[in-house]
């Protein structure tokens, strides 16, 4: 995923009393804005250098070392459960030679010039880029700070800096045994010229990187002291909740609020173009007031639209639309041999974050404060500027911990709505979407329709490969300037245009088919690879079956010169015991291999399919080469969580449309795996000296094909449409009747598989 940024966007000066107090106490504020040189080369955002001769670094930085010895890191990337704060703090602590327990962290303010993610081109967290972006920038930051602090100690002692060592923030002169703590050196270090070029450690000298570390945010989550957006309380705050037109593209016709205004605690009814909000003294009053409204909608042109029509239109576009060629190698049309073809269909998907959408806003004549958990703080400023007409310097975003993101909080639409509501009153308002509203008004992962074919030689190896994916582009709506010159959205073909396999003739195409009636779309955990890896790895499994070969051995035979992919495949086969032992009836083992986000991953999933069509996950083995590992605990957790997220989508999740509206409302009909359905998951890390790859989304994209390939091995049923249709897996007609009867009587909580 790639984003762009408007270079003319004004920066916002953070207003942080703790930061001002730190400077007043005589602290060293290290912004790591070199006094010359190309900051981009070192992984820093443009605009982060200070003018030469500045007496100290300004308080718009990543790192602060106080005269009391405190070390603070202002995180350029947000924490939404993926462990990024611990990873970022580890990178800094490693180079600064302090303990991880000595570093405190806080959210970065909205400021593109200082905190833009150079891999995304904006101040954003997403696309599995946090460690890849911070690997250079934060290590360089720590190395420069250490250089300046040690130089200050050496100057005081009148010795060469090379004669000094540092352990846990204490500088020691080796020969004399004299010591100085970082806090004692802060003022003097601020006057030291930074090095011409950062000199981070040789990896052989790492003390923290690569070792299992406890997460720095765990204590606050245990005792409840870490604030999420929903936890925000500000003086005089009221609470609002919202109901939008259920059909996309519809508008508000009229509303009778007579009964709502009679509900105790209801303060105001706010009308928007396509929604109504009720403000109350508390959430319950707002919710009951909203339920009491008599709302009439103009349902719009899409009032009769259905999922069936969506895929009919996509199939027609795939057949007759004009494709954009993403990659072409050789001449696929001239290859002779056995042709194998398949069509795959993937649904709209909601994010269903555990913390529903919420934003607290206080709009005043002279400013606007926003408390929100967001992946894009600077974009929140942009939308607030448009709604309020205030300049950027008058808008302050107070970012919070995110109760799940998965791409949903890359979009600031709900923030704009909240600002629009809050500007109609003179007190702070927390706008909370119910779970039902969150799922019915999400920004969905687009639906996709893929047609793929391969021409095989006499050994069953693919000699030609054609993949045409049809679907909408998130990039075209979110950042159209980032589209390729030929109109290509490169995210849509990631892991399709670059296969891990050796195929001499290849053509990958995309047919753009925008979602009709303004159906909102967005990036979902795994972005483009969520559909491409499913299609590619399902199809490779089909080719293995046609060739009469073992699926793992077949993959091994067509890898070509790809040593990292070969290594994870071989280790996964070994750890999973592939090909060993008897497999009981209706049990199966599936495999998937891919290289998303700069990492290599192979997953083996074991399943049992009951005669009634229930899919029981029994075991999973994942082998990952994500380059240099910062924290093995985080990698393991992200692979496990990603697999559960992906399995949930494959088994249960899918947004369907009827009469122009979303049918799903909550976790009873948009299900996720429960703990008792989750199998043992083994994660094995491949030793590597390569640069770090992304890890937050890799498990998700591998879960779906490894599962459906396992189901095929168990039942002989090839599943090309998600979510899985259990009726296709039923062993006999009597069992099918049982399934249909059970489905019609499921409890609101959903059946246990």
TrEMBL record:
Domain spans labelled Aldehyde oxidase/xanthine dehydrogenase a/b hammerhead: 223-301
InterPro entries associated with the record: Ald_Oxase/Xan_DH_a/b (IPR000674), AldOxase/xan_DH_MoCoBD1 (IPR008274), AldOxase/xan_DH_MoCoBD2 (IPR046867), AldOxase/xan_DH_Mopterin-bd_sf (IPR037165), N-heterocyclic_Hydroxylase (IPR052516), OxRdtase_Mopterin-bd_su_IorB (IPR012368)
GO MF term list: oxidoreductase activity
Gene3D superfamilies reported for this sequence: Aldehyde oxidase/xanthine dehydrogenase, a/b hammerhead, Aldehyde oxidase/xanthine dehydrogenase, molybdopterin binding domain
Protein's UniProt name: Aldehyde dehydrogenase
Organism: Dyella japonica A8
